[in-house]
């Protein structure tokens, strides 16, 4: 088999890392880049050695493209993905899979009817950091998982982004912008969510752009810029998660799983690798004295790649007739959980999550994105 042809729609900032990594995977080949601004698509294609460039329509019509990587803005995700399915192509979409349940569910139904696959970011759950931690939990090193804690907090993206207003608009905020990383990690480890409760607040009603040509310009904050989420999983575990663009204290990438026999620190779910450490229960403690927690550092296993690994796994899964890890169904359940948290913050009541998802497959230790497997 020749490499599977990939077409990218959306030539924004994130396309660089996709083009870099997909270009290094022998099982796939990026053949075309499309964008609302064809000149931008051509610039990215030339930069990364991609032979064809043009509009989204050009990419969708390309007979050699078998998989679309949808890197458009979130508001366009389901529209572009649905057009790809209608064109007979599999889809990998950036997170979230959509911004509402109805169009996202319709996308998955259309793909299933057409016998096509949908994959959804984040694919950091395929990274060796997360997968090593998943194996630690699966073999019982922390006993029975009981609860989890996650945190992502800082002052907000207006500190670096020249046009940050969309990150505080409906369909965004820390919940839908950063929440997919943390919720995908928790669901991949602990299984589907049954219900959620949340509290949200706005630190400011307006924000000011700090960098770029619009510096000093203000824009409205439409959604909670801080949200605290309580999650109850179908398996009985619990989690508490903080997502904030209001914190002077910058702290992100906090993911901890606590069990009957130990606590595990996981890498930042926005990264493919990182520190993994296990704390065992104390056997004794002096009253009033210091508690010296012993940490067991765990060596990461596997090959580190980057964005696009989930698309590659989907391509291989199609050839091997197996489920892929970062599936559209996982992306939909994550979206359903996050929208339920948004609804809970607005109503003040716990919200039952209607969707569920099958157990998320693990990645074998010998998974190598840089190997050729489709010969």
Automatic annotation (TrEMBL):
Asked if rRNA-binding is a keyword of the record, the answer is no
The GFO/IDH/MocA-like oxidoreductase domain, residue ranges: 130-265
Keywords, A to Z? NAD, Oxidoreductase
Top-level taxonomic group = Bacteria
Q: Where is the Gfo/Idh/MocA-like oxidoreductase N-terminal domain?
A: 5-119
Give one Pfam hit by family name.
GFO_IDH_MocA_C3
Enumerate the PANTHER family for this protein.
BCDNA.GH03377
Q: What is this protein's record name?
A: Gfo/Idh/MocA family oxidoreductase
């Amino acid at each position: 088999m020749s490499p599977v042809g990939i077409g990218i729609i959306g030539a924004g900032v994130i396309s660089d890392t996709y083009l870099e990594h997909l270009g290094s995977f022998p099982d796939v080949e990026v053949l075309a880049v499309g964008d609302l601004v064809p000149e931008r698509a051509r610039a990215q294609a030339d930069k990364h050695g991609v032979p064809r460039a043009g509009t989204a329509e050009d990419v969708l019509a390309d007979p050699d493209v078998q998989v679309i990587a949808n890197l458009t803005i979130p508001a366009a995700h389901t529209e572009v993905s649905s057009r790809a399915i209608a064109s007979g192509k599999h889809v990998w979409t950036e997170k979230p899979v959509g911004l509402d349940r109805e169009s996202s569910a319709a996308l998955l139904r259309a793909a299933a009817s057409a016998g096509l696959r949908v994959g959804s970011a984040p694919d950091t759950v395929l990274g060796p950091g997360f997968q090593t931690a998943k194996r630690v939990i699966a073999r019982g090193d922390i006993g029975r998982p009981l609860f989890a804690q996650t945190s992502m907090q800082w002052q907000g993206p207006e500190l670096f982004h020249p046009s940050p207003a969309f990150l505080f608009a409906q369909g965004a905020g820390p919940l839908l912008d950063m929440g997919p990383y943390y919720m995908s990690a928790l669901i991949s480890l602990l299984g589907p969510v049954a219900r959620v409760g949340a509290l949200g607040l706005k630190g400011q009603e307006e924000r000011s752009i700090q960098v770029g040509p619009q510096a000093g310009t203000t824009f409205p904050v439409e959604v909670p810029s801080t949200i605290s989420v309580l999650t109850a999983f179908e398996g009985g575990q619990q989690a508490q998660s903080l997502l904030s663009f209001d914190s002077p204290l910058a702290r992100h990438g906090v993911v901890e799983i606590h069990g009957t026999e130990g606590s595990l620190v996981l890498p930042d779910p926005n990264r493919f690798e990182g520190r993994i450490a296990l704390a065992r229960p104390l056997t004794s403690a002096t009253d009033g004295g210091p508690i010296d927690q012993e940490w067991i550092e765990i060596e990461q296993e596997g090959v580190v790649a980057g964005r696009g690994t989930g698309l590659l796994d989907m391509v291989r899964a199609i050839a091997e007739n197996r489920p892929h890890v970062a599936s559209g169904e996982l992306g939909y359940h994550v979206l359903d959980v996050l929208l339920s948290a948004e609804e809970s913050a607005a109503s003040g009541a716990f919200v039952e999550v209607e969707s569920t998802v099958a157990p998320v497959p693990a990645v074998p230790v010998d998974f190598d994105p840089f190997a050729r497997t489709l010969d």
